[in-house]
Amino acid sequence: MKKLHFLIAAVGMLFMLSNCSRKTNPDGSSSRSVYGSNNSTSTAAKPAPPKRIKTPVPKVIAVNDSAAKKTFDGRYYYDLEGHRYWRNNKDGKYYLFNKSMATDPAFKNP
């Protein structure tokens, strides 16, 4: 019988303590945090990351042929910041890839 009274008292105490928890006790304002007041002086906002400036991609570049790479069919190309430039055999400059290079004889194998 004493074990039953002790068990009932323990369950009652746990029930009362769980009801008084800060997580479940509403305080009436939604701007407050779970563990206390939400003062603007205590929480600092993160600074915004700086904007990344994109540099414009040039359409034509001049590259030494020793710095360029050669394909299996003999054409020269140069990769610059994720863009591929192909060598024009008439003027020796490297042009940013476009679809018209496929039919242009200046970009074909020399």
Your description of this structure?
This protein is of the alpha+beta class and 110 residues long. It has a domain at 60-107. It contains one helix and five strands. A five-stranded antiparallel β-sheet has the order 1-5-4-3-2, with no helix packed on it. Strand 4 and strand 5 (94-96) form a beta hairpin. The chain is rod-shaped, with a radius of gyration of 36 Å. 5% of the residues are buried. The model has no long low-confidence stretch (mean pLDDT 80).
The biggest sheet amounts to: 5 strands, antiparallel
Q: Which percent range fits the helix content?
A: 10-25%
Overall shape: it is rod-shaped
Give the termini separation: 103 Å
**Which structural category fits the helices and strands?**
alpha+beta
The largest sheet has its strands arranged as 1-5-4-3-2
Strand content: 15-25%
pLDDT < 50 stretches = none
In DSSP terms (H or I, runs of 4 or more residues), the helix count works out at: 1
Average pLDDT level: 80
Helix and strand element order? HEEEEE
Task: Indicate the radius of gyration in whole angstroms.
Answer: 36 Å
Number of strands: 5
What would a concise description of this structure say?
It contains 1 helix and 5 strands. By secondary structure, the chain is α+β, with helices and mostly antiparallel strands.
Write the layout of secondary structure elements.
Blueprint: H1 2-19, E1 60-61, E2 69-70, E3 76-80, E4 83-87, E5 94-96
Antiparallel strand pairs: 1-5, 2-3, 3-4, 4-5
Characteristic terms for this protein:
110 residues, alpha+beta, five-stranded antiparallel sheet, 1 helix, 16% helix, rod-shaped
